[in-house]
Amino acid sequence: MNVVDVKEETRRLLNRLPDNLTWQELMDEIIIREAIEAGLRDSEAGRVKEIDEVRANFGLQP
User: Fold this and answer.
1) Predicted TM-score of the model (pTM)
2) 9, 45, 59, 60: which could form a disulfide with 55 (CB 3.0–4.6 Å)?
3) How many CA atoms lie within 13 A of 57 on its CB side?
4) Each residue of 11-43: b (16+ CB within 10 Å) or e?
5) Residue 2: is its pLDDT beyond 80?
6) Which is nearest to 13 in space by CA: 28, 29, 25?
7) For 30-58, how does the pLDDT look when each residue is reduced to its tens digit (9 = 90+)?
8) What is the pLDDT of residues 7-31, one digit of tens each?
9) 55 Ramachandran zone, left/alpha/beta (phi>0; psi -120 to 50)
10) What is residue 13's predicted lDDT score, i.e. its pLDDT?
């Protein structure tokens, strides 16, 4: 994954959000973004599991 210019990405994020945004909504967006990026890094590094394994770990039907 490419190195992200956090300031520029923050500007893009703010520009697409509504003007009446709350601090909590902004924090939620940041947390979601970070979680997605962490997942992408894990995927790129090969730290993934097959869906059947995940389902079995949680006792779910295949």
Assistant:
1) 0.70
2) 60
3) 6
4) eeeeeeeeeeeeeeeeeeeeeeeeeeeeeeeee
5) no
6) 29
7) 999 999 999 999 999 999 999 999 999 99
8) 999 999 999 999 999 999 999 999 9
9) alpha
10) 94
Structure tokens at 36: 């997605």
DSSP secondary structure letters along 3-46: PP-HHHHHHHHHHHS-TT--HHHHHHHHHHHHHHHHHHHHHHTT
The two tokens of residue 56 are 């079995």
| Residue linked to tokens 């009446």 | 20
In the chain, the largest separation of any two C-alpha atoms, in whole Å, equals 44
Please, what is the angle between helix 23-44 and helix 6-16, to 10°? 130
